[in-house]
């Protein structure tokens, strides 16, 4: 069993880091620039729940596959389990709290915009309900972004630790 842990761990970790970096810094930016706001919103509300689930699953897989003894090996050194704990907590908060809250507020803003059109507000005027929703959305979205960045930082921290232990034969 221990001979399979190393490759599984390396693949899980590298997939995790690649997913985090690609989704956070490439796909979101490209989609934001290329799509109209409504299409971007529709895409994001479908993609980010899957991203947060994948992030959490890959973190768990990476943690349980640490060589040579899996999860037991994780707790041998504080500098190994702390980044996993930080990444796990922040990813979990995005999965369970801030991701769903942001999605819910995003959907509510679309509904409120429809209600505001029915009110025939003067051009440039934003209803009090929309102002309140915008503030709530901004806070939840900012928290989600910051938690994601902390998770990426913790993933990179662990990656540095992992890379420092790799040994290459120089024949």
TrEMBL record:
It comes from the Eukaryota. Residues 11-109 form the TMEM205-like domain. InterPro entries: TMEM205-like, Xanthocillin_Biosynth-Assoc. The keyword Metal-binding does not apply. GO terms for cellular component: membrane. Pfam families: DUF4149 (PF13664). Keywords: Membrane, Transmembrane, Transmembrane helix. Coiled coil: none annotated. This is TMEM205-like domain-containing protein. The chain crosses the membrane at residues 12-35, 81-99, 140-160. It comes from Cucurbitaria berberidis CBS 394.84. The keyword Transmembrane helix applies. It is found in: Membrane.
């Amino acid at each position: 069993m221990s001979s399979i842990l190393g490759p599984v761990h390396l693949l899980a970790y590298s997939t995790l880091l690649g997913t985090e970096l690609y989704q956070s810094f490439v796909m979101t930016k490209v989609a934001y620039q290329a799509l109209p706001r409504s299409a971007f919103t529709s895409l994001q509300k479908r993609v980010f729940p899957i991203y947060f689930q994948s992030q959490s699953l890959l973190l768990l897989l990476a943690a349980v596959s640490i060589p040579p003894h899996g999860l037991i090996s994780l707790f041998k050194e504080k500098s190994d389990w702390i980044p996993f704990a930080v990444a796990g907590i922040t990813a979990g908060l995005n999965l369970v709290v801030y991701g769903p809250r942001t999605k819910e507020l995003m959907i509510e803003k679309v509904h409120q915009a429809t209600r505001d059109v029915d009110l025939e507000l003067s051009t440039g005027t934003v209803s009090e309900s929309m102002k309140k929703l915008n503030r709530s959305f901004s806070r939840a979205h900012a928290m989600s972004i910051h938690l994601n960045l902390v998770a990426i930082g913790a993933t990179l921290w662990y990656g540095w630790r992992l890379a420092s232990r790799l040994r290459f034969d120089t024949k």
